């Protein structure tokens, strides 16, 4: 039996066709460009001329793992493929890995050191390596007597932090003892993660019961919720947000005693609107979902505030109109970095998404 | 020896053990996963702890995924991971073996 692991170069049409045919035979059939283009590299095992096992990596996520166990000890090829992927990632100093898989394979991954973060009826989401979710939670600042306090959470990308975001945080802060604002960690927006984080911090500095935290890989990240960053069909959005919501409900909220999650109503964004619906379905009764009506935070000429508009103004250089949409802190940041931001847009940064 | 970085040695294949070592404030914490945990869990932890202590490491976070490794393998993988994590692979600690 030949168990040599080889690199598969999907840029070769013949290799790609074999790879797709093999995965299709195992019921993995989503080869949309969205997914396949994310792959950093792919490995496989051949038995003679036949592909019998394969796996890929995209960033810190393992993908497209498929194994045929015919004629060998069950699990041996699976272990070989996953070992190789894990070791290659570790060699590149990526020590924290995720996998999305069908629920029935969750156990196979748990068998080789992965731990499950959440699962739905069809899918499971697991992680391995370090720092893991316990390390992430241990790093989050806490206050004295937190277990007896009323604590709320908000997750936002804040690209950039607007008066709408500010209104949402103010509402939560006035109704709770403590509010965690988790800023999306994935760096795929016009404003970088560090900039977004700092603007949220600056924009909420006067609210002393608000703690701003990086959401890490666990809240609306590229790992848990890729559809937030890539246009995707509704079904994919629902499926990913279900897992995202369950991680929040099962892992994040209990550790911090979060009993409510605040979200803004979403009349304008399809993806975020589905996300809100899923949160309403998944979080209660453990965590209450409070939808804050966006129409309460209007500009003086009665417009709903969106970060999308702000980015449009940046593109057009209309900084004089910013004051109505964003707090002073964000406006001054934009004034000072206008050319850098416009350059990013010129270089192809998409500003119409989230 | 001091742990400076996260490092790994070993694989997830049968008869091997994968050991990941990272920094910790104090003490050696071992998170072990093994099919023979019931029979040999304590023994495996003991081998890892002793090996680390012999290397002069008293604080480390260890994640071990065991696939039925023998003691000599556990020891070898622990030394390799510890030397990588402490960036001392250019001075092999032969005396620990």
From TrEMBL, chain A:
<dbReference type="GO" id="GO:0008771">
    <property type="term" value="F:[citrate (pro-3S)-lyase] ligase activity"/>
</dbReference>
<comment type="function">
    <text>Acetylation of prosthetic group (2-(5''-phosphoribosyl)-3'-dephosphocoenzyme-A) of the gamma subunit of citrate lyase.</text>
</comment>
<keyword id="KW-0436">Ligase</keyword>
<keyword id="KW-0547">Nucleotide-binding</keyword>
<dbReference type="InterPro" id="IPR013166">
    <property type="entry name" value="Citrate_lyase_ligase_C"/>
</dbReference>
<keyword id="KW-0067">ATP-binding</keyword>
<feature type="domain" description="Citrate lyase ligase C-terminal">
    <location>
        <begin position="151"/>
        <end position="334"/>
    </location>
</feature>
<dbReference type="InterPro" id="IPR014729">
    <property type="entry name" value="Rossmann-like_a/b/a_fold"/>
</dbReference>
<dbReference type="Pfam" id="PF08218">
    <property type="entry name" value="Citrate_ly_lig"/>
</dbReference>
<dbReference type="InterPro" id="IPR005216">
    <property type="entry name" value="Citrate_lyase_ligase"/>
</dbReference>
<dbReference type="InterPro" id="IPR004821">
    <property type="entry name" value="Cyt_trans-like"/>
</dbReference>
<protein>
    <recommendedName>
        <fullName>[Citrate [pro-3S]-lyase] ligase</fullName>
        <ecNumber>6.2.1.22</ecNumber>
    </recommendedName>
</protein>
From TrEMBL, chain B:
<dbReference type="GO" id="GO:0008815">
    <property type="term" value="F:citrate (pro-3S)-lyase activity"/>
</dbReference>
<comment type="subunit">
    <text>Oligomer with a subunit composition of (alpha,beta,gamma)6.</text>
</comment>
<comment type="function">
    <text>Covalent carrier of the coenzyme of citrate lyase.</text>
</comment>
<protein>
    <recommendedName>
        <fullName>Citrate lyase acyl carrier protein</fullName>
    </recommendedName>
</protein>
<dbReference type="InterPro" id="IPR023439">
    <property type="entry name" value="Mal_deCO2ase/Cit_lyase_ACP"/>
</dbReference>
<dbReference type="InterPro" id="IPR006495">
    <property type="entry name" value="CitD"/>
</dbReference>
<keyword id="KW-0963">Cytoplasm</keyword>
<comment type="similarity">
    <text>Belongs to the CitD family.</text>
</comment>
<dbReference type="Pfam" id="PF06857">
    <property type="entry name" value="ACP"/>
</dbReference>
<keyword id="KW-0456">Lyase</keyword>
<keyword id="KW-0597">Phosphoprotein</keyword>
<feature type="modified residue" description="O-(phosphoribosyl dephospho-coenzyme A)serine">
    <location>
        <position position="14"/>
    </location>
</feature>
């Amino acid at each position: 039996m030949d168990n040599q692991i080889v690199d598969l170069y999907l840029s070769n049409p013949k290799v790609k066709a074999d790879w797709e045919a093999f995965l299709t035979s195992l019921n993995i059939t989503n080869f949309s460009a969205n997914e396949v283009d994310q792959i950093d590299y792919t490995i496989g095992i051949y038995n003679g001329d036949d592909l019998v096992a394969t796996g890929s990596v995209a960033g810190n996520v393992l993908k497209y793992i498929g194994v045929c166990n015919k004629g060998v000890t069950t699990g041996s090829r699976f272990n070989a493929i996953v070992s190789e992927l894990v070791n290659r990632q570790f060699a590149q100093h990526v020590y924290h890995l995720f996998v999305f898989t069908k629920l029935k394979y969750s156990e196979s991954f748990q068998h080789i050191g992965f731990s499950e973060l959440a699962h739905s009826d069809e899918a499971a989401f697991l992680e391995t390596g370090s720092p893991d979710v316990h390390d992430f939670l241990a790093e989050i600042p806490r206050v004295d007597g937190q277990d007896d306090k009323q604590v709320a959470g908000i997750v936002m990308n804040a690209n950039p932090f607007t008066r709408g975001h500010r209104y949402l945080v103010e509402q939560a802060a006035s109704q709770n003892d403590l509010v965690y604002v988790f800023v999306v960690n994935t760096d795929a927006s016009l404003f970088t993660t560090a900039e977004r984080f700092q603007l949220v911090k600056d924009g909420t500095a006067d609210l002393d019961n608000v703690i701003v935290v990086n959401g890490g890989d666990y809240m609306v990240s590229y790992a848990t919720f890729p559809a937030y960053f890539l246009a995707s069909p509704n079904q994919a959005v629902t499926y990913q947000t279900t897992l995202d919501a369950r991680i929040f409900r099962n892992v994040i909220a209990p550790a911090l005693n979060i009993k409510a999650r605040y979200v803004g109503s979403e009349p304008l964004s399809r993806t975020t609107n589905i996300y809100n619906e899923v949160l309403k379905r998944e979080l209660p009764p453990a965590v209450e979902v409070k939808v804050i009506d966006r129409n309460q935070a209007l500009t003086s000429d009665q417009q709903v505030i969106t970060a999308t508009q702000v980015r449009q103004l940046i593109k057009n250089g209309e900084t004089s109109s910013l004051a109505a949409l964003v707090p002073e802190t964000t406006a001054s940041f934009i004034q000072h970095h206008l050319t850098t931001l416009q350059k990013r847009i010129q270089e192809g940064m998409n500003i119409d998404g989230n | 020896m001091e742990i400076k970085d996260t490092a790994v040695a070993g694989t997830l294949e049968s008869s091997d053990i994968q050991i990941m070592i990272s920094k910790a404030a104090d003490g050696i914490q071992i998170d072990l996963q093994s099919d023979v945990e019931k029979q040999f869990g304590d023994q495996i932890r003991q081998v890892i702890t002793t090996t680390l202590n012999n290397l002069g490491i008293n604080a480390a976070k260890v994640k071990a995924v065991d696939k039925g490794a023998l003691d000599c393998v556990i020891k070898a993988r622990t030394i390799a991971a510890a030397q990588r994590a402490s960036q001392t692979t250019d001075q092999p600690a032969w005396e620990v073996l």
